[in-house]
Amino acid sequence: MFDFLDSGQYDVLGAFWVTVQLTLYSAVGSLIWGTVLAGMRVSPVPLLRGFGTAYVNLVRNTPLTLLVIGCSLGLSQTLGINLGGETFKETGFRLAVLGLIAYTGTFVCEALRSGINTVPVGQAEAARALGLSFFQVLTLIVLPQAFRAVVAPLANVLIALTKNTTVAATIGVAEAALLMKEMLENEAQAVFAVFAVFALGFVLLTLPTGLLLGWVAKRVAVKR
């Protein structure tokens, strides 16, 4: 049933390695961008709050496939922005990461904003009374506690991001979903086996992540 894995025709491990790379780069970028958006949403500057709110509500409710294809068609093919990629493969990978960051950052923002709301207001007021600026209060007092409170929600976002990397196949990124499509076309007699291989691969990627970050969430939870 699984003879197609021994043929050497399909690089399953290579495809999942691309998926892992997409996840890692997008996760780091989403964490940074989501933190910036969360800061905007709680900022005392109306313009920043308005931009953060509008961006989150607009992008979060836009299909990820549309965002990724938009990055490919709008940035690469229309505007000629390749993000430093010298080949089609490199350009597609980087554009997929950009689309995933733009989308996933909104979910990181909302998870982090809920964590910010758990920090007692009195702590921020006390910090301002000591003469700290908004940026100092946010980075030194509020965000460290907020991150500790939302490890579990961020784990869910990371797991969703891992599964969302399959959308990169729409612009030709050679990750797991694209290879699975090719194998389903060529190995019609082993459809169940192909599905089983890729389902197991994604379980092996997401299950340890959930268990590890669940343990971390319990260890770093803020006792109130």
TrEMBL record:
Organismal lineage: Bacteria, Bacillati, Actinomycetota, Actinomycetes, Kitasatosporales
UniProt-listed PROSITE patterns: ABC_TM1 (PS50928)
Database matches in Pfam families: BPD_transp_1
Keyword Transport: yes
UniProt membrane topology term: Multi-pass membrane protein
Localization of this protein: Cell membrane
Transmembrane stretches, start-end: 12-37, 58-79, 91-109, 129-147, 190-217
NCBIfam families registered for this protein in UniProt: HEQRo_perm_3TM
Listed name of the protein: Glutamate ABC transporter permease
Record flagged with keyword Repeat: no
Chief place where the protein resides: membrane
Ranges of residues in domain ABC transmembrane type-1: 16-213
Domain of life, per lineage: Bacteria
Keywords attached to this entry: Amino-acid transport, Cell membrane, Membrane, Transmembrane, Transmembrane helix, Transport
